[in-house]
Amino acid sequence: MRLLLSALLTSLATMPSGQDVPGEIEGFKLYLLPESSASCYENRLMVDPTSRRVVTWTSPRDLRDFDSVMPHSFQIMNLPDDGTATPVIVIGTNARVEPLRWSESGDRLLFRVDARGTGFYLADQQRVEVGPRMDPLWEEVKIEAVANGDLAFHQRPEALALLRRVRADGEPRRVLLAQGATSAALLAFHWRNQFRLTAYAGTRRWETGKNIAFTSAPLLMPGTARVRQLGEQEAGRPFLPYALPFLDRRLGAIAGRFGITRIEPLRGRAIDLGKHFGQLTAIADVAANGTTLFALVDLERERRVARIRDGKISSWLLCEKKPLPIPIKLPPDDSLPADTPVVRSEVPLGPGMGHAFATLYRPVHADGRLIVYFHGGPTIPFSLDAVPWGVREAAASGISILVVEYSGMQGGGAALSERLPRLGIAAYRQDVDRVMRWVARSPFQRRYLLVDSFGGIPGVLTARYHAALFDHMFFRAPALTLHSPEETLRDREGFARDRVSPESQREFEAAIYGGDAGRARFVADLRAEVSQLRPSSRLSFYFGTKDGASQPGDLPAQFHGRPEVMIVQSTHGMLANLEEVERDIAMKMAWPGRQEQLKAP
Description:
By secondary structure, this protein is of the alpha+beta class. 20% of the residues lie in helices and 30% in strands. It has an eight-stranded mixed β-sheet, sandwiched between helices. A six-stranded antiparallel β-sheet has the order 1-2-6-5-4-3, with no helix packed on it. Strands 11-12-13-14-15 form a five-stranded mixed β-sheet, with helices on one face. A hairpin with a 2-residue loop joins strand 22 (302-309) and strand 23 (312-320). Helix 6 (425-441) crosses helix 7 and helix 10 packs across helix 11 (515-530). It is globular and about 70 Å long. Residues 1-18, 62-68 and 210-239 have low confidence and may be disordered.
């Protein structure tokens, strides 16, 4: 559902409807769109070398959207020093278009159209002209250029030589380029070998691991001693959940990392934008130009571009969030009702052997109810969403939600991603014990457990060892064992239906569980825990008839035919969105407001 909704929002928000620009690129028309067409869904930011202008656009940052390769438009915004409002120029096509690089003088922006040609936006003249056709190699890769060089960087022999080497190692899905005066370095994300990032610099080549969830990553320059995973915790520094790197365009190197509300430069003090902007839902992206930082910030009702220079924060309005002109009534993306403000906080879980961490979404008018949520995966950190799905409905009724990131989840650093293959199910037991210790000490009087898919594994351990903490526990399409890759992929929705082969699934599982032996050990240990579950009026399970990954037969025999086990017509990913499942959960939680919502047409 979230994949389909995201695609719908993007297509509606970026559909060109403006003045034609002279010139065509292989038959594709270009448009300059009026300010009113500015989209509020951007998650990428590029600053020009003079810090006078920024470009924003929408691009996939993680593995939720393999198939989105290029946006349909991008936006250019001037940043006047006096802080006055500035018009936003939107460049779109009837195909796909992607910004690539500013000239060093900041007066021209190079972009490409549908991998078939290039164009230039002339900033001072506010017009577009057609550029040269790209090297054929560039039709197969995406390039993000962040180092020194001129607009002819894509014709540099060093870069093209590295691209040919990358292609020889398997067709890449995305390539990031760092280029100095006499050298180039590449970081390639390979599709055929899922989740594999490979770094190239000169004659050197590094493997960065097969279980990395983001297509953006630190760039490697020649002489780099080691490769770090995204979000990996720096020794002696506070952990920053969901960390993404940001780059210094002058150096073509990583300059720090950012999370939901904080920016941590490698040099200098951390910056908490949550204290500067009211109702900040997330920092969408960060870029550095020397010592000056720029951030794309997502607020409750608008998006702004912020500049941090010499300790001073300035910001400019990019766009206001508006309802979409479609018959379906949808709230603004990543937002909450204005009358139900929610305080989001990183929860200090306290000491323990586990490495799980959590985010608490607590309404200002909380009523003492808490949902502890173990989401699915194991490759998508749920809290990368500025406002996780479900928080809106819960907040309106005064319910708090604790979103937990646990072992195996990517985006939380090596501390989580390395524990599962090393410790097996013991990693989950440690994580669960640590979380439940906090839950037991918390002031919430009524508590509920909600798990989806892979979250069923820590959910089972919670039901086995901490059931007394909860009024009710809900398992939606839970992973209670590991089926064969062929069965797991049966009737899958979205990209997995056509693009993930059983071989890719096997390679993915080998990376997650530490090879065939690690997988077999994990399955045996999980089955032993599941076999000890007993039916209870406080324990509910929901399964889909078209789900190869989670099946009623995975439960012990004493659950078969029980009223606490609901079987519905659904695939794996769609089950959580079914009204009959939501209605049953709302009824068992005695959640009248939600029940009334679900009765509405």
